[in-house]
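Could you show me just one protein sequence together with its fold in token form as a worked example?
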Amino acid sequence: MGYSINKSDVIPYAPDELGNFFCYAYEWVDNLNFCRPASEFLSDWAPYEKLAGERFFQAGWRGDGRIELMWLPPFVLGGMLSNRADEYLTTAGKLWTHGLALWHVKQDADGTSFILSPVELNMPAIGID
């Protein structure tokens, strides 16, 4: 098997830092096969999930759906970062090579996805009325 970072290195921040994350609503996140439960990466995942849920709720989430992590590989980040790679490289340092883990929940009621990111993304609210 090839090299992979340790699962314990995927989330390099404390739960309270989720309060500073950028929150987005988006439609058409329909392939959830690559979303993973936070419990696979964090031994004490409950505080993270609680704070992520609070942030999603503030953005309009109705409380249904499963909060998970969604990973973006490093090669897609340049075009998605609001300030391109410069800000992310400054913030993440060498961790940029790990890609970016986003917090995600897809609302069961209407299919709207809510996404939390530690860096600002160039992501319009497509499909949201």
